[in-house]
Amino acid sequence: MPQELLLTGLREGIYTITLNRPEKLNALNRQLIAGLGRVMEEVYRRPDIRAVLITGAGEKAFAAGADIAELASLDVEAATALARSVQQDVFDKIENCPKPVVAAVNGYALGGGCELAMACHFRTAAETARFGQPEAGLGLIPGYGGTQRLTRLAGKGRAMEMMMSGGMIDAATAERWGLVNHIYPPGQLLDASLRLLEKIRDNAPPALGRIIGLVNAASLGDAGGFDREIAAFGACFGTPEMQEGTRAFLEKRKPKFDGGER
Ligand code: COA
After folding, report:
1. CA 168 to ligand 1 centroid distance, Å
2. Alpha carbon of 25 to ligand 1 centroid (Å)
3. Region label for 224, one of left (φ > 0), alpha (ψ between -120 and 50) or beta (otherwise)
4. Which of 13, 87, 105, 157 could make an S-S bridge to 129, C-beta 3.0–4.6 Å?
């Protein structure tokens, strides 16, 4: 039986997706990427999924990039189509997902692996994690959104240096540069990230979806962001979650949100 390239598991509303090709440092081949696209469709569709954690199998890598053996045989048209499809069918779907998606970076996040982590809403990392965009050393550039997302996250100078040098940065530098929100000892990364997601999961799903959409718009420099925020703020007042959230506060109890998309 072929090895499953993605492992998934749902526990109390949190869906964990594990990239599972550890013998190749979880390099993103076509099959793995297509599977990730299908799994993300499931995330959108299933109301029982409230939040998502993406991580890599093994201790060494989150993902060491696109599969270089596959890239080697592509021509201009095929490479253009690949980049378009990975960006639009998979990574954009992660970034625009109305449910929180967090990457727990457990080791190398290089090339497409770093781009995948950056498509997530935010990142946690093991102390041993390493980030890099080594494509220029292969005669390539990042093609899965890296030039855009890294510049937005880390700023122009740092993005330029990282992509021009192809060098790796460690987890502490990634945290300082804004790529990573929290760093944990390797053995604690998953549990600590899940605890963070549990807190997020317990908040109102329609509010979380609106926050994601508005912050994404801001990071794209959407000039209409303030107006969209006004409209989205108002729309919250038409949701049962707002009724429940405010009533629970006044009744001095914890709110209970049923979940599901609205
Ligand atoms: N694509 C395909 N295979 C990859 C890969 C990638 N991006 N990254 C690692 N692998 C494979 C290696 O070929 C090796 O396979 P093998 O055992 O069949 O020879 C296996 O994963 C283990 O990698 P290895 O290089 O032996 O591990 P290492 O600890 O010596 O080095 C790295 C780790 C991350 C420094 C090194 O694997 C590397 O530089 N990978 C490529 C990173 C990259 O350029 N990514 C961007 C791609 S566009």
Report:
1. 14
2. 6
3. alpha
4. 105
Closest CA to 207 of 247, 246, 239: 239
Could you list the beta-strand ranges (E) of 44-171: 51-56, 61-63, 101-105, 108-110, 122-126, 130-132, 168-170
Type of residue numbered 196: L
Task: Give the position of tokens 């009744």.
Answer: 251
Nearest atom, ligand 1, residue 61 CA = 34
Query: What radius of gyration, in Å, describes the C-alpha atoms of the chain?
Result: 19
Query: Tens place of pLDDT for every residue, the chain, 262 residues?
Result: 457 999 999 999 999 999 999 999 999 999 999 999 999 999 999 999 999 999 999 999 999 999 999 999 999 999 999 999 999 999 999 999 999 999 999 999 999 999 999 999 999 999 999 999 999 999 999 999 999 999 999 999 999 999 999 999 999 999 999 999 999 999 999 999 999 999 999 999 999 999 999 999 999 988 899 999 999 999 999 999 999 999 999 999 999 998 544 3
The pair of three-digit structure tokens given for residue 170, joined into one six-digit string: 């460690």
Which residues sit with their C-beta closer than 6 Å to ligand 1?
24-25, 27, 64-69, 108, 110-111, 134-135, 138, 140
Q: How far is the CA of 251 from the centre of ligand 1 (A)?
A: 56
The tokens describing 177, both together, are 């540069």
Q: Is 198 helix (H, G, I), strand (E, B) or coil?
A: helix
Q: Do residues 188 and 223 lie in contact, with contact meaning Cβ atoms separated by under 8 Å?
A: no
Residue 205: alpha-carbon gap to chain centroid: 18
* 113-129: b (≥16 Cβ within 10 Å) or e: bbbbbbbbbbbbbbebb
